[in-house]
Structure formats: C-alpha cells, structure tokens
Write a structure and sequence with these properties.
Elements lengths: L4 E2 L1 E8 L1 E4 L4 H5 L9 E4 L5 E7 L8 E14 L7 E8 L2 E8 L8 E4 L3 E2 L4 H5 L2 E7 L8 E14 L6 E4 L4 E4 L5
Length: 181
C-alpha cells in the first residue's frame, strides 16, 4: 500500500509572518528536498501563524487513511530556547494530528516529526484537510523560529471488499451478504 505525502499548496491566511525566498508561505514550506534559504519566521512580538491548504494525494479506490504524521523542518535564530512552534492538521476546526515542539534548541535546521496519529479518513476528507502552523516567540526569549519545510505522511489501508454470493435451491433463492465493516 502506498504512503502518500501531503504538502502545502495554497496559503489560506497568515498573521505576523515574514516570508523569505518565495512568494507565499505555502511556496517556501513546500520544498522537496528542503531548501533552507526559503522560510517563514515570526517578525512581531506575538504569535505568527499560517493556515495552509494541502495537496490532494492519489490513492487506490476504496482506501482510507489509518495514520498521519506531521513533520516540520525549522531552526532557532540565536542561543538556547529560541522559540516555540507547532503544526496542527485540521479537519475544519477539529485537530486530527499535531506536532508540538515546546522549544527549539538548535540553531541548525532540524526536521522533527510527531508520533503517528490514528485517523480514519476517506480521500475526500483528506483532500479537505488544512495545516495550521504557529511559530511563537518564547515568553522568556525574544528570538523567532524559522520554518523551511512542512509535510504530512499518511499510511493507507484498503477497505475490505466482499463478493455477493447467490445460492439457489429447489425451493428458494437466498442472497448472502458478508458484513465487512
């Protein structure tokens, strides 16, 4: 079974962000492979956010997602405790998976991954997902976080299919429908 990857493909909204090396937040975060010269960062004294549309993956008919894992490549600008960041994978306003990074302790770019979140969604439901990215400044340190790449891995499972068997006897005809839920 394939493992599709969702990447940003549209910027729905941003607040307090500076985009460097690209036209919009989705453009700089959709780097495969990562291009650390293009990124988003917090430029103000409060949280900076971006809500992003994601690519629509292709997968086998009838398959459903079983798990999702959010990954973000980012770095701090200076010293220890450079800031905080998180990414939420959302279905409407419901968070279905999250990568929460309490503090960035590296001034080098590092890709961090969340644990796999169990989610069962159809392809249409996955196509409607958005990513909410927040790059805060830590309350104890004024340095911003820089994020250069975002992606979400999915694990798919095929739904069981069943054949309908018709049995004919001399006195009646019956249809047996297996329960495949």
């Amino acid at each position: 079974m394939s493992q599709p990857q969702l990447r940003p493909n549209s910027t729905i909204s941003t607040t307090g962000l500076s985009v460097v090396g690209g036209a919009s937040a989705d453009v700089v975060l959709d780097d495969a492979p990562a291009a650390d010269g293009s990124y988003i960062q917090n430029t103000g004294s409060s949280a900076a956010t971006a809500t992003l549309g994601l690519t629509d993956p292709t997968w086998p008919a009838g398959a459903v997602s079983k798990s999702a894992r959010v990954q973000l490549r980012a770095r701090g600008i200076s010293g220890s405790l450079p800031g905080r960041g998180y990414v939420e994978l959302r279905s409407g306003s419901v968070v279905v998976a999250k990568l929460d990074l309490s503090t960035w302790t590296s001034t080098s770019f590092v890709t961090k991954a969340a644990a796999w979140f169990p989610i069962t969604l159809t392809q249409a439901e996955v196509n409607a997902l958005t990513a909410y990215v927040r790059v805060n400044k830590s309350q104890t340190n004024p340095y911003p976080v820089i994020a250069s790449e975002l992606y979400i891995d999915l694990i798919l499972a095929e739904r069981a299919t069943a054949a309908i068997t018709t049995v004919t006897t001399a006195s009646s005809t019956s249809t047996i429908t297996p329960d495949c839920s």
